[in-house]
Structures are given as structure tokens and as C-alpha cells.
Write a structure and sequence with these properties.
The protein is mainly β. The strands form two sheets. Strands 2, 4, 5, 6, 9, 10 and 11 form a seven-stranded mixed β-sheet that branches. The protein has a four-stranded antiparallel β-sheet with strand order 1-3-8-7, with no helix packed on it. The model has no long low-confidence stretch (mean pLDDT 96).
């Protein structure tokens, strides 16, 4: 089992920054990739960014490239999402998730943290 706990959400003005953290506990050795997802009010959940646990390689949504950076600290079992130049449309509940194998659905999910960007 893997447990995920997000933190770092809050309210920020457009153009500002926030850093989300996801602390991973349990069978961390079973993780292949960690991802961040978000769900805006009235919209479906969408992928934001991911990082491969072993080598740190990343992928991200086109609309956040150049603004958001995902990283991981294996020693601290923590995944970060640094969000800069935030826009109103980034307002959403953000979730971290753990994938155990390439191509498989994300199996473990955190409880989410809310990000509100005022225009």
C-alpha cells in the first residue's frame, strides 16, 4: 500500500506562485511514476504533470509547460509541483497520484489540495 498526502494549496493572485508537495509513505519501492492531476469546478479531471520515480524524467500538460515544474526528492519521499505565473484557469483541486507500472492507471490518490487563483 502507498499513502499520499498533499499540501501547499491556497489562494494566490494571478501571476503568483505556489508550491504543492506530496508526501509518499508505505511501499515507495513499488512506485513507477508519480503524477499531479487537477479538477476544476464543473470540469473533468485532467493530467498536469508526472515524474518517473527512478530517474526523474518528466512530462507535463502543454498549457502548463514553462510555468509548472514537477520534481521529486527520493530521500524525502516527496513530489513537488512548483507553479509559477498562475492563471485564473489554473484554479482547481490538485491531486497527486501513484502509478505502479508503465501504462497502467494511477492506483493511489491523495485527498487533494485546493488552489484558487484570483484574476
Amino acid at each position: 500500500q502507498v499513502q499520499l498526502v498533499e499540501s501547499g494549496g491556497g489562494w494566490v493572485q494571478a501571476g503568483g506562485s505556489l508550491r504543492l508537495s506530496c508526501t509518499v509513505s508505505g511501499r515507495t519501492d513499488s512506485i513507477y511514476r508519480m503524477g499531479w492531476f487537477r479538477r476544476a469546478p464543473g470540469k473533468a479531471r485532467e493530467f498536469v504533470a508526472s515524474v518517473r520515480w527512478s530517474d526523474g524524467s518528466t512530462d507535463s500538460l502543454n498549457s502548463v509547460k514553462g510555468r509548472f515544474t514537477i520534481s521529486r526528492d527520493n530521500a524525502k519521499n516527496t513530489v513537488y509541483l512548483q507553479m509559477n505565473f498562475l492563471k485564473f484557469e489554473d484554479t482547481a483541486d490538485y491531486y497527486c497520484a501513484g502509478q505502479l507500472e508503465y501504462g497502467q492507471p494511477y492506483r493511489y490518490w491523495g485527498q487533494g489540495t485546493q488552489v484558487t487563483v484570483s484574476s
